[in-house]
Amino acid sequence: MKNTYTLRKLFNDVHLWLGIASGLVLFVVCLSGTIYTFHSEIEEWLEPDKYEVKALTRPIPVDALVQEAEQELKGKVVAIEIPQDKGSTYRFSVAAPAGGAEHGGGRPTTYMVDPYTGAVKGTTEGPGTKFFQTMMQLHRWLLIDGGVGKMIVGIATIIFVFLTLTGLVLWFPVKRKNWKQGLKIKTNARWKRINHDLHNTLGFYSFLLLLVMALTGLCWSFDWYREGLSKLMGEEVFKGRREKPLASPAPMAGGATLQVSDYLAKANTILATDGNTRITLPEDDSTAVVVYRTAAGFFAFSAADKVQLSQHTGEPLKVEIFAEKPLNVQIVSLIKPLHLGEVYGTFSKILYFIACLIATSLPVTGTMIWINKLRKKPKKRMAASVRV
């Protein structure tokens, strides 16, 4: 009796051959993504003296810190990050004067500043910076310039979406009563069964996070995907990249000159008082000051509240509270943290690290399953010939 070609076999063949076609690329992309997950934490661990300070009773006023930094670094402070953690350094982004050669030829350089002493402790460049930049480039375009690498990664990611979906279908057993077997790894079995369980069970547990990673990651790979998702969601993906501060009304004659502390004081009356703060300062007298506030902590939600202030009066020009935005706008604005695993702080990064590590193992365990099946076929043929 001939075996019929079932829908399940079709899913199995699609899963198998797509996996073989993309396995090596997916292994490299997932491995580099796993390594990159905790890059900031590792860089801080490598140079703790640069990121940590001894908390004293009261920090130096931020206006005095700005003045000292501009004098010492011979540039203009264009942004300041003030962490909620009292034992962490402030981050000052400093741009060189127009035409200056320092600070990367005018491009802002971020410096760590001790808020209690005013000492500049270094830049964000460290011993692990180049390594993690390489991991990011490997993850995004396989170190292949010219757009080819990005396309290869994008195609492999599309394949990965199909692999996760077909894998979920194949996880469900033929006999419903055996569904519990797919939830555990039989550690006392032979290595072939253990390998199968590692692929099947771990793939099931990480399915949802891997699908989120893939669907959000495609926003960096293809313009057509990003534009299509923007139309579907009714909100432009990566809109913040093009947004510029609002125009700030012209100063009134005899008006007082405001300082950074004035803007922060005003922002504190509008935004939540707890959290990490980032303030971007205008390049001239025609644009607004922008203040962001994000939650801090192990389980912190990464969404930021934002207020734009008139640089001459300090009055709010526009207030954006994340919780008050429509759901579609919230989802689109979280594309990047959803992909990087930063959406719920360290907690979600741990989950993403584990899921990405599992994703790295899936091409390996899947290839082993395929090889084992290839070995079985000659044995079956030999047994059939002996019976004849």
UniProtKB/TrEMBL annotation:
The keyword Membrane applies. InterPro entries: PepSY-ass_TM (IPR005625). PANTHER family: BLL7967 PROTEIN, IRON-REGULATED INNER MEMBRANE PROTEIN-RELATED. Pfam families: PepSY_TM. The chain crosses the membrane at residues 16-38, 151-174, 202-225, 350-371. Keywords: Membrane, Transmembrane, Transmembrane helix. The lineage of its organism: Bacteria, Pseudomonadati, Bacteroidota, Cytophagia, Cytophagales. This is PepSY-associated TM helix domain-containing protein. It comes from the Bacteria.
